[in-house]
Write a structure and sequence with these properties.
153 residues, mainly alpha, 9 helices
Length: 153
């Protein structure tokens, strides 16, 4: 029921126009200073509707982070937008494409699982929606500057 309410609110927000902006996503690789600057920029440049839309995006990602089939198409459907419209709105609000946003969320979840659980790396990879080990290792190293095994140690 809560999920349906969030989808309805996301649909409502997605159909309303709002002012353009470009900001970055907070990630574990950002310094505290970058995060503070991003939060200041975010609060001064995003409209309230955009902030709610962004929060709902993050909530939906968090709720579906371990669902292998949850991809950009599902995001766009929840927002009641065509994929191209969704792409434009997410890029404007977050500074990332929907695919980049999902990938960062999946990699952040992988990093959390590596630290907080005893799951082996392949189990973490599968839980985070990566079907190919090479792809997972490549993106993880690009995001964190080290392999998943090094990150865990």
């Amino acid at each position: 029921m809560v999920f349906l309410m969030k989808i309805n609110e996301l649909r409502k927000l997605s159909t309303e126009e709002s002012a353009p902006t470009a900001i970055g996503i907070k990630s574990e690789s950002n310094t505290e200073e970058d995060v503070e600057r991003t939060e200041e920029t975010e609060q001064t440049t995003l409209t309230a509707k955009d902030q709610r839309f962004k929060q709902l995006l993050y909530t939906l990602m968090e709720e579906h982070i371990e669902e292998p089939g949850f991809a950009v198409e599902e995001f766009a459907a929840c927002a009641n937008l065509k994929r191209t419209q969704f792409y434009t709105k997410v890029k404007r609000i977050t500074g990332l494409t929907p695919i980049e946003l999902l990938r960062k969320a999946h990699l952040g979840h992988a990093a959390k699982l590596l630290i907080e659980t005893d799951l082996n790396i392949d189990e973490v990879r599968e839980r985070c929606g990566f079907s190919n080990s090479t792809t997972f290792y490549g993106y993880f190293k690009q995001q964190y500057g080290m392999t998943p095994r090094q990150y865990r140690q």
